[in-house]
Design goal:
This protein is an alpha+beta fold. The protein has one domain (about 5-225). It has 10 helices and 10 strands. It has helices at about 5-15, 25-30, 45-50, 50-65, 70-95, 145-170, 175-195, 200-220, 250-255, 270-280, and strands spanning about 25, 40, 95-100, 105-110, 115, 120, 125-130, 140, 230, 240-245. The strands form 3 sheets. Strands 1, 2, 4, 5 and 6 form a 5-stranded mixed β-sheet that branches. Strands 3-7-8 form a 3-stranded mixed β-sheet. Strands 9-10 form a two-stranded antiparallel sheet. A hairpin with a 4-residue loop joins strand 4 (about 105-110) and strand 5. The radius of gyration is 19 Å and the shape is globular. This is (2Fe-2S)-binding protein.
Length: about 290
Amino acid sequence: MTPDPLDAFRGVSARLKFAPLPELTDADRLHGRPVDGVQFHSVTSMTRHDWLPVLFDKLRTEHGPGHRLPAATNFLRVTLREPVFLVSACLYLTGRGPLLTPDTLYLPWDTARSRFDTPTVAAPRTAVLPDDPAADHPDTVVARDEVEQLRLVAEALFATVEPLVAALHAHSRAGKRTLWGWVLDTLHFYMLNPARYLGRDAEQAWELATRLGDAVVEAGAVTRRRPRLFPFAPDHPRGTWAVRGTCCFDYKGDPEHGFCTTCPLKCDSERQEALSEWLRDPALAP
C-alpha cells in the first residue's frame, strides 16, 4: 500500500520540542462532527460572508491586545501558525509540500471561550517529486522538479492566505506588507527551528526557506524586508538564530515586554547577549 504522504512528517514532528501541527482529517469526518459550540469556518466562508471582522473584534475585545497592529498580527498567529508550520516544516523535513486551499483550511471558532481552536486541514493534498515513494498516492500531485514543487506549494499558500490578509487589512487597517511580512517571517522560522533542534545545517534550511519565500512573493505576496540569519555562536550547533524582517508590534500591546529577541527593531548587541544566555541556560529559551 502506498504510504500516506504526511505520515513521515507526523513521525519526525514527534521528535521536535516545538511542532504546532494543525488537525488533519477528511471532509466526511469534519462535517459529521457534532457542533458543540464550535463554528467551523473555512477561509472562503469566513472572508466571503464577512465573519472575519466579527471574530477579529470579538477576539480583541475578550483577549486583547488593545492596539490594532499587534491585534492584527495576533489574529494571523492564532489562525495561521499551524498551517504555515505544516507547509514549511513538512517541505523541509520530508521534501513533500502540502497544498493548502481556502476551501479546505478550517478555522474553528469556540463560541463559549471566544477564541480560535487548532486549525483543521481537510483532505490535504501534497506536492511530491517523481521519485517519492508516495508518488502513487491519490492525495499527491507529482511535480516535475523542485522548482515546480516550490511554485505549486507557494501558489497554494498564497491563494489560501491572501483572502485573510486582504480582509484583515481592510478591517484593521494594518498594512498588507506588515501582514504578509509576518507570514514570510514565520515561514522562514519554521524551517530554521527544526533544523536547529535536530542539529542540522541552519544555512541549508534557510536557503530552502528563502527559495520558498521567493516563490510566495512571485505568487503575489508583498513585504518590505525579508528576515535574515543571525549567527551568534558559529561554533555551537544551535548557535544560529534569525531576525524577522517585519516587526509583529507585540511591544505596542505590552510595553513592559519590550522588543522580542528576533525583532528587527532590537539592536544586535542586545540580541547577541540574550541568545548567548539561552545557550548557557536552555530553560530561558522560548
